[in-house]
Amino acid sequence: MTADLDALRDRWLAAWPQALAAWGRTSRMHAPVLHTEPCHMGSWAWYTTDDPEVHVDLTVVAERGIEDHALAVLAHEVGHHLLAPVDRLTSLKIASRIKVGLVDMDHLVGLVDNLWCDLLINDRLQRQAGIDRAALAQTVGAAQADNPLGVLVGRTYEILWGLPRGQLAAEGAAAEDHAMLCSRLVRAYARDPVGGAAGFARLVRTHIDPAWLRDPDNGADVGGLACGGDHGGDDSIPFGLASDPTLGAPATHPALDPRVVGTTDVPEATPIELTPGGAGGAGNALQPAALHALLTAMGSPTTAQQVAAAWYRERAAPHLVPFPVREGPTTSEQLLGGLDPWEVGDDLSTIDWSGTMTASPVVVPGMTTVQRAYLEDESVQERPRPVDLDLYLDSSGSMPDPSASYAPIALAGAVLALSALRAGARVQATTWSGPGLTIGTDGFTRDVDAVLQAVVAHIGGGTSFPLALLERTHLGNPPTATGPTHVAVISDSGVTTMFRPWSAEGETSSDVAARALESAGGGGSLVLQIPESYRHGIEALAGDYDVYPVTTDDDLVTFARDFSRATWGRQSRART
């Protein structure tokens, strides 16, 4: 058996150049990995996006009797690299649209995603590259009547390729109108796998038999045209996923899609408003919880907090602001000069004894004694130092959980933190709630992941600003802040506990916040989820802290603009 598989491997490797050529003379990939030991992947071939690579389990190839279809199998896997899904970002975009179309069948996202990509690839190979994918499907066997999803897909291929009914699917078992719609969907979105994914999922949803899929003997085998699909496993969250304003849009059934059925005789559907721009919730972009659900459906172990951190990092990128810097001190170094006479009355410690003894072994004060002269080098100004950021984020019950839904106030915190880190500053980020309830970086750091994890953390308890931490940071003996620092607080009306902390005897006034701001030396900002009408009341308590109400995307843009003006205005005043 081993010798047979070794010979089979050589035959399949010989077919690899032709498989690449099926997609164009410039197609490039390194040779496939041909396994001669069972991989237990549930298919004879698969493609990985994290390290673009084709894998084939030759033991399954021999078991299914498809040894003579190397070109059809290998060219199909190259199609996953060049057409659908191409890379991890596109793969997750396709999956997100599939998830929308499936509504409540998240556990089938991977299966339906693979079927859709396979349809596009196989149709391209069969019609344009002259590769007989239909023969491969016939060798494996037609989908049977007890497999409604496989029958629908098989009948779709028959319509696409003009094959006789019953060749790839049990005759008479499929809804002919749906198979016709599916074939037109494939042609309409032949080069747009993301655009047609939701419609495909919505179409096939009614053909999914949960009982058939639960049967372990069936697994995910829906016919001879399917493969193992994309098995990218790096669990990364690619940039560009959170900011796409179309991924959460409602799925349009192919029967209502003008690209599929033309522009006439189509029942009028409710138009989908895709509002471009905006900081977080505009259009139909995926929200943090939806993105986490998608990754979970795709088998990723990424936590909700990790997803939220990546989500806010991407959404904050267009709104980063210039962060303040302080000019370094002017310094000069002393250069060694020549020897000057040392006279009686000069400081005894300035005698250069080496020079004195070299001039005469007999020391006569004021006659043979000398001292070293020093010259002043040209003054040099040290590099400007960015102002550090001390960030406090309210996580009481009145504040939204950033990992569950979009919160403009949390995005404002991410904007401040990432702006500081981009400037080379250090950040201390602390999420706070009731007395003693804090989550944070435990000091100043330049670790962007640690800072963002603090930004998206949520406690959901009472409201009590951590004045002790603020005092220790800026008024301690010594303070933990080691240079000019900007103090920023993300909160709502609970920010009043920063100035009037609650005690057992009731609210009391405190000047810790004011003294800490003065000691920090980098200004202060209160970014608050409050109506504009509350602003003046907060400003009366805040003293020299700048107050920014942020409740909408437009408020976030205004905050970024005003913060820049206030920061650089303060910087100019400090220099004069």
Describe it for me?
By secondary structure, the protein is an alpha/beta fold. It folds into three domains: 2-214, no CATH class; 336-375, no CATH class; 385-575, von Willebrand factor, type A domain (Rossmann fold). The chain has 21 helices and 17 strands. The protein has helices at residues 2-14, 16-21, 58-64, 70-82, 88-102, 109-129, 133-140, 148-161, 176-188, 193-204, 210-214, 258-261, 288-297, 304-316, 353-359, 408-422, 448-455, 467-475, 512-520, 535-542, 553-575, and strands at residues 33-35, 45-48, 53-57, 325-326, 330-331, 334-341, 370-376, 380-381, 385-386, 388-394, 427-432, 438-440, 485-491, 502-503, 506-507, 521-528, 546-549. The termini are far apart.
